[in-house]
Every structure is written in structure tokens, then in C-alpha cells.
Specification:
mainly alpha
């Protein structure tokens, strides 16, 4: 099955559907209207720190642009449906969470698609998932600690309403756990976050009861899928 690598279409995004459901935009018809009317220009919400000024400043680690697009669209939803903190301090915390998740998720995609996709074969027809998981965990653990430090508990702003970056964090940790089961089990804070978010008493419970919420990834598949997007000059080397 071919994985879609084109621009993010909001109505096809699990992150978007989860967030819209939590804001009482229920059902495909209403969500399609919301996407068409409110999210058509979601890239206008891309933060300054993510914008590439030219080809040299483009972040080649975001090989399929999915994290850039996802951060922009969750910000767009946050702006439209009151999920952005009012105060500057918590806005800054959300941005710090974005930056860590951008690094973590792109480390994962780079490992899967470049480093561990048949690393000793010019044919690229094998994928050593255990090797990929081992390499990833070594890089994820310090990032997990950095995320913990930004959670007042259980959410970014404490024991209160989740904000847009909490939704992004849930989606990323879900995908990470699909790729590397048990990735955050040793983190009491991240485990509590995932549990509290999943059981949060709001309309989001409607989303978690759907079959769509229980299958597939939120942002990217945990398998090689974007080798053709890697520039040739970056086809060698490792990540740090």
C-alpha cells in the first residue's frame, strides 16, 4: 500500500479529526465543512521558527514536511477553537514542546527511512525494525525528559483544559509507541499524560470510541515510505 506523501489534507488527518471532535465538530460532514471553511489556509499559522526562508534554510530532516504541516494545522485549530493559551509564558511552553516533538518525530522518520532501511544493502529491500528501535530509544530518552520538564501535570498547563500542544503531544507519543512499544512506560509523567488525555471527560471521548482512532498512525507510518524525498547529497551520514 502506497503511503501518501503529498501536502497534508486536514480532513484526512487523524490529529485534525481528534481535535475537531473535541470541539464538538462531530461527524465527517461537519468536519469537512470545518476544514473547508476554517483550515483551508492552515499554513498561515506556521510559526516563525519553522518557516524556511530559502532552500538553504529548509529543514531537510522533515523529509515529507509532515511535522511542519501538522504543527501549523494544530495551531490553526487552536486559534479558531480557543485552544491556545492566553498568557505568554504558556505560549512559550507550547512552542518548546513543538520544537522537541519536531526533533523527536523527525529523528524517528530519518532513522526508519535512511539509517535503518537496509543500511548494508544498496537494494534497500530490508528494514531492521529492532535495530531502528534501539537507535531511536537512545535518542528519545533525553527528549522525553525534556518534555516531562514542560508538563505541569498532567497537561502542559497543569490540571486544567488541554491546549493545542497537548493534542500534538498525544499524537506524537501514540505514533512513537506504535513504532517502539513501551517507549515511555518508564516515564511516570508521560504515562500519566497519555492516560489522563485518553480519559479526559470531554467530547474527545467520542473520538476514542471510533474505529478510526484505534487504527493507523496520527502523523506518519512506522515503516520506510519516503526514500525518494531524501536529497541525494543528504543520502549519506547519520543524525545527532
Amino acid at each position: 500500500e502506497k503511503v501518501e506523501t503529498g501536502p497534508l489534507d486536514p480532513i484526512k488527518s487523524k490529529v485534525v479529526k481528534m481535535m475537531l471532535t473535541s470541539r464538538m465538530q462531530i461527524g465527517e460532514k461537519h468536519q469537512k465543512i470545518a476544514c473547508d471553511r476554517k483550515l483551508a489556509n492552515y499554513m498561515d499559522h506556521c510559526p516563525e521558527w519553522l518557516k524556511s526562508k530559502d532552500n538553504n534554510s529548509k529543514n531537510w530532516m522533515d523529509l515529507d514536511n509532515k511535522m511542519t504541516e501538522t504543527i501549523a494545522v494544530v495551531r490553526a485549530i487552536g486559534a479558531e477553537w480557543f485552544l491556545i493559551p492566553d498568557d505568554a509564558a504558556n505560549q512559550e511552553k507550547c512552542e518548546q514542546v513543538e520544537k522537541i516533538l519536531f526533533s523527536v518525530m523527525n529523528t524517528m522518520v530519518y532513522l526508519i527511512n535512511k539509517i535503518c532501511f537496509a543500511p548494508n544493502s544498496t537494494e534497500c529491500n530490508n528494514f531492521d525494525v529492532e535495530y531502528a528501535r534501539t537507535r531511536f530509544m537512545a535518542k528519545f530518552q533525553p527528549k522525553a525528559k525534556a518534555i516531562e520538564d514542560l508538563l505541569d501535570g498532567p497537561f502542559i498547563m497543569g490540571d486544567t483544559l488541554p491546549v493545542y500542544a497537548d493534542y500534538l503531544l498525544y499524537a506524537c507519543l501514540y505514533d512513537i509507541n506504535v513504532f517502539c512499544p513501551g517507549a515511555y512506560d518508564k516515564s511516570a509523567k508521560l504515562s500519566e499524560f497519555m492516560d489522563k488525555f485518553y480519559h479526559y471527560p470531554s467530547p474527545i471521548r467520542r473520538w476514542f470510541r471510533t474505529n478510526e482512532a484505534k487504527t493507523g498512525e496520527y502523523i506518519r507510518p512506522p515503516v520506510p515510505h519516503i526514500m525518494e524525498l531524501l536529497p541525494e547529497e543528504l543520502g549519506q551520514g547519520d543524525i545527532h
